[in-house]
Write a structure and sequence with these properties.
globular, alpha/beta, 141 residues, Rossmann fold
Length: 141
């Protein structure tokens, strides 16, 4: 079953694919484990450039994007993903950063991210925000 169809039927149990993008291997591993525990399929990328390639290849249902990374940061990657059009223009993207300030949040939203979560809020908080976005999509569809 295609992930989009799973989102439209709240009675179905399905594994939605989440792309986790972060330049820190430990964060990618921990985020993957927590999100997998919540029932999601997880793929990872180490920077925005790789994320752009993976997003076009695998068509994830949601992206968790570190804001500050080498090669291509999360802001530029988000703008590039949005520019792809179609599903990618509306895919939920959660900006994730060690910064917990208003300017960082505003920068993320301006770049096209759906939400912002600070890394200092913890991994379970991130998983809850992912769950909330998925459930909001179910309600809309």
């Amino acid at each position: 079953m295609e992930p989009e169809k799973c989102l439209r039927n709240t009675n179905l149990t399905c594994h939605l694919m989440i792309l986790v993008v972060d330049d820190t291997p430990a964060f990618r591993k921990i985020a993957s484990k927590v999100l997998e525990y919540h029932g999601y399929e997880v793929i990872t990328a180490e920077n925005g450039l790789v994320a752009l390639k993976i997003a076009t290849e695998f068509n994830p249902d949601l992206i968790v994007m570190d804001v500050r990374m080498p090669i291509m940061d999360g802001l530029e990657a988000t703008r590039s993903i949005r520019a792809l059009g179609g599903k990618m223009s509306v895919i939920p993207i959660i900006g994730y950063s060690s910064q917990d300030d208003d300017p960082e949040q505003k920068e993320c939203i301006k770049a096209g991210m759906t939400e912002f979560v600070s890394k200092c809020w913890g991994m379970e908080h991130l998983a809850t925000r992912v769950d909330n976005l998925v459930n909001a999509c179910k309600t809309i569809h």
